[in-house]
């Protein structure tokens, strides 16, 4: 058995059965073995898309995917996809082909390149992955494979393995021929054990983030039984329908009663949430402003340290452990001294007309919920509006996903494709802005007939124009079409682009003022694959909903 065969067999045994990539000389052996071993290889049309597909696949299937790239531009094209997974703690394995060892000499000669497309792949990806290794020999791989793949399964690691072209075909010693099994059954690392004993925890608000994705139904039932209100980040929104005490989504772009609960909480517990700027705002003191004590639970020690420095050591208690371990170890009790004065708080009051973008998207989400539950949303204004819309119709059975931390353009339609390979029976919806469409429009060729794409068309980069109005005297350089900009974007023929990929009669275009419940229902139950929703180019995202 050669090294490539063993690596692919190991990955399949660890549950990595789907691989996304672009063919190339130094990747061909990997791909050949993937197909020979009965795994699924999906040839995307740009390596960036491969990482986004792997991201969407894991979000909806719960299993890591593989990404396969060749030398040079194969890896550099994939960087955004790798980073997207890394910053959202999405496990994946990136297999990187490298030129043969005899040509892999750039560092040795202190020159830029010796072999064709020879790049320092690992130097490029090391800051955006957990494990970056050059597999120098079968012995080196076999000595480390349990550690590497164990981290993939247990610690949700992003792993990048580079293998020189000649090393890929080396034979493995017979005593290394056994394929790895049952890595997921191993015990948690010692550092993941609770660092503080806790049996009962009194709190008045639970804040849950994307790090709670591993909580079981039993964990959620324990939270429900506590009777404590629960506020959710964007990354935890899809758990809302399973939490009977949920008060909705919070954040600087998410108006609603969850923000009011946060502004009045005295003893909150924060579980699996990083609480970054788009959640707490530019002035952290305005977030949880009345809290006398904040308990912060996170498996990463560095996040705990940052939280103390951000919110003040005098009122913060950090618990460095896995969130499921914490919920297993404590009994959460509702603090009775806090009386929340919420009143008739609704996100709708922040949007002036029925034609506002969040209200329109809310109508569309409600109609989509009649046929499906998987929603993928892109970056910028579209991302904020979608989660504002989710707060309007919250709770629902929808599962809304995004690349929450990197926020790349051109993510949603690729993630939708990745999810489709793991959820072949389910319909899904991708929501994307018109400015993001060109980023990965080639992947529309992978689109299944039953999956839907909603393009929010505000004629350019709306969230950037909002910044330009505020800080740059409304000089829309590089963010708007035609005469609206001193440096205009090329006008996008959105219908023509989509029809060229998906066929004629695949698109319905509608102005936001003409959108109706019946029209939305027809789109989701009919044959059209794409809806272009034309909105006011000057529409802005309402932000900052915390009291100063």
How would you explain this protein's 3D organization?
The chain has 548 residues and is an alpha/beta fold. It is globular and about 70 Å long. β8 (205-208), α8 and β9 form a beta-alpha-beta unit. It is built from 18 helices and 20 strands. Helices cover 33% and strands 17% of the residues. The model is unreliable at 185-197 (pLDDT under 50). It folds into 3 domains: 3-178, 3-Layer(aba) Sandwich (Rossmann fold), CATH 3.40.50.970; 192-334, Rossmann fold; 351-534, 3-Layer(aba) Sandwich (Rossmann fold). A 6-stranded parallel beta sheet has the order 2-1-3-4-6-5, with helices on both faces.
Q: How confident overall, as mean pLDDT?
A: 92
Look at the helices and sheets and give the structural class.
alpha/beta
CATH homologous group name of the largest domain = Thiamin diphosphate (ThDP)-binding fold, Pyr/PP domains
Distance between the termini: 65 Å
- Kindly state the percentage of residues in helix: 25-40%
- Label the overall shape: globular
Total discrete domains: 3
Number of DSSP strand runs: 20
CATH class of the largest domain: Alpha Beta
CATH architecture identity of the largest domain: 3-Layer(aba) Sandwich
Largest β-sheet summary? 6 strands, parallel
CATH topology of the largest domain: Rossmann fold
Strand order of the biggest β-sheet: 2-1-3-4-6-5
Low-confidence stretches: 185-197
CA radius of gyration:
24 Å
Strand content: 15-25%
- Helix segment count? 18
């Amino acid at each position: 058995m050669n090294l490539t065969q063993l690596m692919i067999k190991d990955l399949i045994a660890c549950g990595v059965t789907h691989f996304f990539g672009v063919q190339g000389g130094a990747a061909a052996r990997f791909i050949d073995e993937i197909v020979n071993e009965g795994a699924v290889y999906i040839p995307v049309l740009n390596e960036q898309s491969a990482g986004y597909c792997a991201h969407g696949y894991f979000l909806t299937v719960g299993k890591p995917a593989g990404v396969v790239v060749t030398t040079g531009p194969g890896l550099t094209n994939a960087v955004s996809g790798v980073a997207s997974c890394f910053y959202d703690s999405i496990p994946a394995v990136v297999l990187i082909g490298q030129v043969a060892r005899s040509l892999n000499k750039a560092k040795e000669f202190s020159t830029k390149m010796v072999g064709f497309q020879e790049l320092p792949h690992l130097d490029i990806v090391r800051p955006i992955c957990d494990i970056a290794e050059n597999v120098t020999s079968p012995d080196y791989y076999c000595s480390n494979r349990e550690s590497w793949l164990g981290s993939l399964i247990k610690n949700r690691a992003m792993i990048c393995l580079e293998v020189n072209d000649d090393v890929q075909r080396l034979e493995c010693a017979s005593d290394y021929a056994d394929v790895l099994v049952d890595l997921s059954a191993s015990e948690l690392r010692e550092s993941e054990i609770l660092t503080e004993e806790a049996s009962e925890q009194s709190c008045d608000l639970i804040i849950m983030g994307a790090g709670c994705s591993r909580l079981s139904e039993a964990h959620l039932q324990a939270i429900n039984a506590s009777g404590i209100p629960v506020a959710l980040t964007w990354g935890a929104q899809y758990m809302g329908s399973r939490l009977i005490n949920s008060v909705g989504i919070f954040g600087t772009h998410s108006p609603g009663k969850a923000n009011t609960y946060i502004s009045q909480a005295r003893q909150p517990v924060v579980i699996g949430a990083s609480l970054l700027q788009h959640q707490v705002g530019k002035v952290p003191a305005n977030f949880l402003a009345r809290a006398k004590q904040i308990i912060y639970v996170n498996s990463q020690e560095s996040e705990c340290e940052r939280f103390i420095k951000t919110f003040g050591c005098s009122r913060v208690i950090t618990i460095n452990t896995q969130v499921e371990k914490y919920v297993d170890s404590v009994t959460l009790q509702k603090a009775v001294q806090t009386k929340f004065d919420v009143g008739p708080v609704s996100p709708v009051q922040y949007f002036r007309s029925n034609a506002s973008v969040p209200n329109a998207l809310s109508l569309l989400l409600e109609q989509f919920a009649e046929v499906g539950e998987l929603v993928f949303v892109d970056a910028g204004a579209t991302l904020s509006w979608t989660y504002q819309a989710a707060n309007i119709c919250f709770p629902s059975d929808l599962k809304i996903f995004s690349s929450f931390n990197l926020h790349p353009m051109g993510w949603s339609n690729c993630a939708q494709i990745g999810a489709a390979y793991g959820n072949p029976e389910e319909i899904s919806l991708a929501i994307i802005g018109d400015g993001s469409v060109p980023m990965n429009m080639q992947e529309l060729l992978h689109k299944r007939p039953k999956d839907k794409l909603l393009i929010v068309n505000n004629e350019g980069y709306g969230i950037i124009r909002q910044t330009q109005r505020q800080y740059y005297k409304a000089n829309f350089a590089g963010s708007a079409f035609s005469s609206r900009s001193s440096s205009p974007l090329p006008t996008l023929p959105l219908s023509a682009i989509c029809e060229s990929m998906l066929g004629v009669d695949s698109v319905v275009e509608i102005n936001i003022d003409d959108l109706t419940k019946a029209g939305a229902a027809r789109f989701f139950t009919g044959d059209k694959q794409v809806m272009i929703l034309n909105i006011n180019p000057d529409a802005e995202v309402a932000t900052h909903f915390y009291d100063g």
